[in-house]
Design brief:
Layout: H1 12-26, H2 34-41, H3 48-55, H4 66-85, E1 89-92, H5 100-103, E2 111-116, E3 125-129, H6 136-151, E4 155-158, H7 164-174, E5 179-182, H8 196-204, E6 208-211, H9 223-233, E7 237-240, H10 248-258, E8 262-265, H11 276-283, E9 287-288, H12 292-298, H13 323-328, H14 335-342, H15 346-358, E10 362-365, E11 368-371
Parallel strand pairs: 3-4, 3-7, 4-5, 5-6, 7-8, 8-9
Antiparallel strand pairs: 1-2, 2-6, 10-11
Helix pairs in contact: 1-4, 3-4, 6-7, 6-12, 9-10, 14-15
């Protein structure tokens, strides 16, 4: 006769959800009918291994036996204890506040480990995704637009990666708005380590960290594409800032399309390889966005234009009519190229570029200059 599973604080719903999550890592299809079957069978009751068998989430030849479920349930108790020790809550498929949009996707996570403000998961969210290798002008634009979008009342949701993800969170922070970061590690394993402070600021400002992975989970490569379906699944729309044609960002874009989410793309220079991903999405029917107001309008909210950056006073080259800015255009160019276009000496061009850089009008990138 099998012994009962010990209960040391975790609820039946939490243990069942953890067991389901462990099973889903082996057989993704186990969650395809999860919410439909929970609605039919009801919440966990009685012996949990028998309850999980009754859910009948897989066809008979592939179904887990009571013994297999029991083995997973025995792993669930220490996982629940570690989650509590990490200060996390469990948002399970049996909770009434499980995010409704996330429940609609093909393979919803049976649970989310969460630190921070739980109610954010139900708010209108914009997923912001893009390259880890974007240049400073793109990151500044992302931060500026996310500040405006967050100020209008939309919750910014992204990963915690360097590049566009970090810029999106900093923008929302600048607006004093809460935001959601979806992790590809355990709730106690912040990655990358350089964003430890950013994660702390996120929690201190009323944001939330969420993950489907158990405490202690390291940053495994396979977890990041899986994580992306949650970023898009939580959100009403997904904004692709920059992406190479083969990238995790386009994985998120594909998830968004499969989940019937609005897909937004930012066009860029034809000389920028990171603009090829958004350009492909635009050819495939994504909505083109040229300003933060375009994004906010899609949420049916009022938009307030943020104050433009102030140019340095007294600098003739900082004026909007600068011939150097006109010669630079919107594609990168070297000092020598600009000098040739203007017929100026290289030293004169370099001094003028230095003035524009101090005024915040241009930025150095990859050996050339770009307009901000």
């Amino acid at each position: 006769m099998s012994r009962p599973i010990p209960y040391t604080g975790a609820t039946a719903e939490q243990l069942a959800a953890i067991a389901l999550s462990l099973a889903a890592r082996r057989r993704i299809t186990i969650t395809h009918r999860l919410f439909e079957r929970v609605a039919a069978v009801g919440p966990p009751r009685g012996r949990l291994d028998h309850y999980l068998v009754e859910l009948a989430l897989l066809p008979v030849p592939k179904a887990y036996s009571a013994g297999q479920w029991r083995a997973l349930l025995e792993q669930a108790e220490p996982i629940a204890a570690r989650a509590v020790a990490a200060g996390a809550e469990l948002v399970t498929a049996f909770c009434p506040d499980y995010p409704a949009l996330l429940a609609e996707i093909t393979d919803p996570p049976p649970l989310l480990y969460l630190r921070g403000e739980r109610s954010l998961l139900a708010r209108p969210q914009l997923a912001v995704v893009g390259s880890r290798n974007s240049g400073r002008p793109t990151l500044e634009l992302t931060e500026r637009w996310c500040r405006a979008v967050a100020a209008a009342g939309v919750t910014i949701t992204s990963g915690l990666a360097i590049g566009v993800d970090g810029a999106a969170h900093r923008g929302a922070l600048a607006a004093g708005a809460a935001r959601v970061a979806v992790m590809a590690t355990g709730i106690d394993r912040l990655y990358p380590p350089r964003h430890q402070r950013l994660a702390e600021q996120l929690l201190d400002s009323g944001g939330a960290l969420v993950t489907e992975y158990p405490p202690g989970e390291p940053p495994l490569a396979a977890n990041f594409p899986r994580r992306n379906r949650i970023i898009s699944g939580l959100s009403l729309a997904v904004w692709v800032v920059e992406a190479a044609l083969r990238s995790g960002t386009l994985v998120t874009a594909r998830c968004a399309l499969e989940q019937n989410r609005e897909l937004l793309a930012l066009p860029g220079s034809v000389n920028n390889p990171l603009a090829r991903g958004p350009h492909q999405l635009l050819r495939d029917g994504a909505t083109l966005v040229e300003c933060a107001a375009d994004i906010v309008a899609g949420f049916g909210l009022n938009f307030t234009e943020p104050a433009p950056p102030q140019a340095a006073s007294g600098s003739p080259q900082a004026a909007s009519g600068s011939p150097l800015l006109a010669a630079l255009g919107y594609d990168p160019a070297t000092t020598d190229q600009l000098a040739e276009r203007l017929g100026w000496a290289a030293s004169e061009t370099a001094r003028a570029l230095a003035e524009l850089e101090l005024a915040g009008r241009v930025v150095r990138q990859s050996g050339g200059w770009l307009r901000r």
